[in-house]
# Entry
Amino acid sequence: MRAKLPVTVAEVGDVEAWQVATIGVAVVAGDSTRCAEILSAATQMARGAPDAILADVRTEIVSFGHGGSGVQGGIERLLDGDEP
# Structure
């Protein structure tokens, strides 16, 4: 998946359960539509895996607003003069 899509992939579930894998896929993009497209392509790729069954998909897209205006804390707080 990583070779074909701009994503990060990791096993996030119980790594000792050898018959079941919970895989997390993350993507960062400039707009939520692009994130949704990439995640949809990743889902289709997982559905097409010949030796696996895709049992469930959960998707969450977190938007930080235009230009990151929705990010609170961190360097943004320091730049605004609101030191902790």
Summary: The mean pLDDT is 87. Residues 65 and 71 are 8 Å apart (CA to CA). The chain has two helices and two strands.
